[in-house]
Write a structure and sequence with these properties.
This protein is mainly alpha-helical. About 70% of the residues lie in helices and about 0% in strands. The longest helix is centred in the C-terminal third of the chain and has 40 residues.
Length: about 575
């Protein structure tokens, strides 16, 4: 039986820690494709596409006495599997968001962990006879991508249980998701130590079943309410109050709920209507059609294509930097290219942990000075705010923080594109660092923007739509890869030039946010001016009543002696 929300609230730190670990090991692990590609080639997946007497050098790794050849045709087919898997990672978020809003995260997380375990089992089975079973790799990467995004997406609502540190926990979840690309390089290290490929994936499938068990025991059957949601107060805070005072039993909660319902029924109709209108969220169509969301979709689609293409074509880029496009490399040059590809792909994979370390920085930027902001709700009637320095407007501060976060991320993306053009292999390590940081930053920026600007019940669907469009746009990385290894003979220079020019589009979103913030500031100034004029008029009216008492009153005014 699924635990209640209050039970899940008591276990929230256990759930958060295990969610970060599960995201690292079982979410978007396909993003470490460069290391997996080397292992698949060593195990002979689609090696039957290579001619036995081809000019390409065969791999030195032996499997049951067989030397598996390697060729461009093999890499094109396997890279197609990466394209499919990476598309599912982003494209499945829209239906997942709709289903999670309706059924909660528990069933999707259970399904995702099972799919991930099944995908690892399929890869292990295909390794027994890769000549016949290589086609299973497409089913496996599809299930792997779907299961991974289920695990990731269901963990994005867990930060709602942490109140004031929600943005920091959300950044940790996104950072662990982005850092999951380090998993396959870690698996490759184990593989290089001599552990059989099939044993690794059978063991990985077993560990994925532990995720299933953890979700079955600890995750509630309903969605996690946001702190501003009434369910958060009713099912977590009030329930906690009752459980802390067991002597009162259930009567305390029933009394509180009954009194609240009675008072709400006694409110006038006009007050009810106005409060319901003010608290009701805008229609979903307005959120989808807003220019802010459309610009964020364009920015994310462009950034995803830039990052996905680099990950998919990284091995060929490293090889080109060693051979410089020589169609007939010497044996020593071919050996050096293979060693450099293995080394730099492992370094790139290890750097993915930087996502987990740097993502909270964007969360901190998004939360900058939010504690100094005024509350969005008005103070109760008759109460006055304490004197002090004027507080910041919450909406304007959210937009200011988002502008800073997107400008900083886009600057890093442009610098990454410039470094990618340099024909020097060691300096590409800087590009690896920037690539890793941008991956973590861009997701945290968009997630923080949607959480700050749009209603909470639109967050999942908006994130899903943005990811789906980004995934469709990122499919262009497959034809770009084929152009690079075909007509361009492995030279990525002109493709990187085009992607660098495309990266400049990312500055249009913070430009629109600046325009929107200026409009919002002008509206607030007009409202403050109207409120000042209204209060001044009320003071004049009250002063007139005090200075002209009604005729015939026996009690003189308290200030009549001073007039």
């Amino acid at each position: 039986m699924a635990p209640s929300l209050y039970q899940a609230y008591k276990r929230r730190w256990w759930m958060a820690v295990t969610a970060v670990i599960e995201n690292l090991l079982f979410s978007a692990v396909l993003l470490g494709w460069a290391s997996l590609l080397i292992m698949l080639k060593n195990e002979g997946f689609y090696s039957h596409l290579c001619p036995e007497n081809g000019t390409h050098r065969a791999n030195e790794t032996l499997l049951e006495g067989v030397e598996w050849p390697s060729c461009v045709e093999q890499e094109e087919v396997l890279n197609l599997g990466f394209t499919i898997g990476s598309f599912i990672i982003s494209g499945a978020t829209l239906p997942l968001g709709i289903l999670m809003d309706k059924y909660g995260p528990r069933p999707l997380r259970l399904l995702g962990s099972f799919c991930f375990a099944f995908s690892c089992a399929l890869i292990a089975v295909a390794a027994y006879n890769p000549v016949v079973l290589s086609m299973l790799i497409f089913i496996a990467v599809s299930l792997n991508g779907f299961g991974g995004i289920c695990i990731t997406f269901t963990s994005l609502t867990l930060p709602n249980m942490f109140g004031n540190v929600r943005s920091t926990i959300l950044a940790l979840m996104i950072g662990s998701y982005a850092s999951s690309a380090v998993t396959f390089p870690g698996v490759k290290l184990i593989y290089d130590l001599g552990v059989p490929f099939k044993a690794i994936f059978w063991g990985w499938a077993g560990f994925a079943l532990l995720v299933f068990l953890n979700c079955f025991v600890n995750w509630p059957g309903e969605s996690f309410p946001a702190p501003e949601d009434s369910r958060y107060t009713k099912k977590i805070k009030l329930t906690g109050l009752v459980l802390e005072h067991k002597s009162t039993g259930d009567r305390c909660y029933t009394h509180v709920a009954t009194v609240g319902q009675t008072l709400s029924e006694k409110k006038p109709c006009s007050t009810n209507d106005s409060s319901s209108q003010s608290q009701s969220s805008p229609p979903f169509r307005r959120s989808v059609c807003s220019p802010m969301f459309l610009w964020s979709v364009i920015t994310m689609a462009m950034t995803q294509l830039r990052l996905i293409f680099f990950m998919g074509a990284m091995n060929k880029m490293i090889e080109f930097l060693v051979t410089h496009g020589n169609p007939n490399p010497t044996e020593d040059m071919a050996l050096e290219a293979e060693e450099q590809v293995s080394l730099y792909s492992s370094i790139f994979g290890s750097m993915q942990l930087l996502c987990l370390l740097t993502s909270p920085l964007i969360g901190y930027i998004m939360d900058w000075r939010m504690k100094e902001c005024e509350e969005e709700s008005n103070p109760p009637e008759g109460e006055k705010s304490l004197p002090g320095p004027p507080k910041r407007n919450r909406k304007i501060q959210k937009l200011t923080n988002a502008i800073k976060a997107f400008i900083f991320t886009n600057l890093l993306l442009v610098i990454f594109g410039i470094i990618s053009l340099i024909d020097n292999l060691p300096i590409q390590l800087v590009a690896y660092v920037l690539h890793t940081v941008v991956r973590g930053f861009i997701h945290s920026c968009c997630g923080g923007l949607y959480a700050a600007v749009y209603p909470a019940n639109h967050f999942g669907t908006l994130t899903g739509m943005q990811s789906l469009v980004s995934a469709l746009f990122a499919l262009l990385q497959q034809p770009l890869f084929m152009v690079m290894v075909g007509p361009l003979n492995g030279d990525p220079y002109w493709i990187n030039i085009g992607l660098l020019a495309l990266s400049m589009v990312g500055f249009l979103l913070p430009g629109y946010l600046l325009y929107h913030r200026r409009q919002l500031s002008q509206e607030l100034k007009e409202l403050e001016r109207e409120a000042t004029d209204r209060s001044a008029g009320e003071r004049k009216t009250l002063a007139g009543f005090d200075g002209n008492p009604k005729p015939g009153t026996e009690t003189p005014s308290a200030f009549s002696g001073y007039l």
